[in-house]
Automatic annotation (TrEMBL):
Residues 1-39 are annotated as: Disordered. Residues 1-16 have a biased composition (Low complexity). InterPro entries: ATPase_NBD (IPR043129), HTH_MarR-typ (IPR000835), ROK (IPR000600), WH-like_DNA-bd_sf (IPR036388), WH_DNA-bd_sf (IPR036390). It comes from the Bacteria. Pfam families: MarR_2, ROK. Residues 30-39 have a biased composition (Pro residues). It comes from Saccharothrix hoggarensis. This is ROK family protein. Belongs to the ROK (NagC/XylR) family. Residues 44-88 form the HTH marR-type domain.
Amino acid sequence: MPGATPTAAASTVPVGSAGGARRLRSTTPEPGPASPWPNLPEVARDVLLEVLIHGPLSRAEIAARLRLSRPTLTRVTKALVLAGLLVEGDTRPRPSAGRPSEMLHVRGAAHHFLGVKLTAERLFATVTDLTATPVATAEEPLRSHDPAEVVAQIADVAARFPGVTGIGVTLGGIVLDGLVARHEFLHWVDVPLKAEVAGATGVPTAVDNDVQALTAAVHWFGPGAGLGSLAVITVGAGVGTGLIVNGGLVAGSHGLPPHFSHTLVDANGPECGCGRRGCASSYLMTHVMMRRLTGRPTYDEALARVRAGDPEARRVFDDAGYALGVLIGTVANVIDPEKVVLTGDGLPLYEVASRLVHDGIEDTYEDDPDLIELDVQPFDFSEWARSGAALAIKSTITGTI
């Protein structure tokens, strides 16, 4: 790995707490890994970001988008080309007579980033270039839930991909400035994951909630690229929502992501496990859905039962589909997004209950449901890991890593 691993002065933090939550032995890096682009001016970051999100652009287009003078843009783009971040590529004819416009492209191979997604059972990793295009993937069982062991496992994975510019780690739960304040499935409380991974690898690291990171990746590198408003809804083991409003990722005053999972669907509905009844989570979380079925089948077994015409399974999936529609309609009522992206490991629900999803939207959304552009995106866990790499890219470009 490039860069020396910083030395650390250790301070003891109690291991374990009520409910089995785990804390990590805290260290204070002296200092942490330096930003790879410490001297990149803000205007240069803006130019790079514009080409990264919107694809190849001419200098005239960039100047118009960012309201930059020609001399300023010339100076900035020259510096980015010399730094190997942009490259001059093909030309495009101008609408009027004159020399064709030369296009600027992001030089993807200039940097690579490692994204890591943690679940309760597995670690998923993806290495991408600067454009978030995957170049390598890895997947393995999580060796332990102990925070120190997880950090060591991430460091082992990072060692297989030397030379990465940054690392992004995503996981469910509440993450505040790189501190995992709470993670239900790993039983973590106040784990300083960002500092520990950076210290163990010698690589600048970003850590965030997985749905927030996925939303940012969709907004920068996916079907929501460049949109001013966007909602990302994930269904599966949990129910997540990420929002883009006025071109920015929404986070609350306490750094918490948006929560719509307890939107009420039916006050007499099933319990969700958090003491609430009839909320979206009580219908949509896969383990709660399976709890309502005879024999507690796996999700794939339950889907097979639906497709075979089993009435009990059909009822559970129809209920879940309607709840998903209510959730989509509620989110659309709140922010009126240009697009709603639906994904997650529970996505087959939409395939078998799409009619009920649209019924729920129609019963909830206050305007014409045709105004909602619903984009159903195929899912696998490598996409979660890719969003970790996108998190590292974003943090590097914006100078927050």
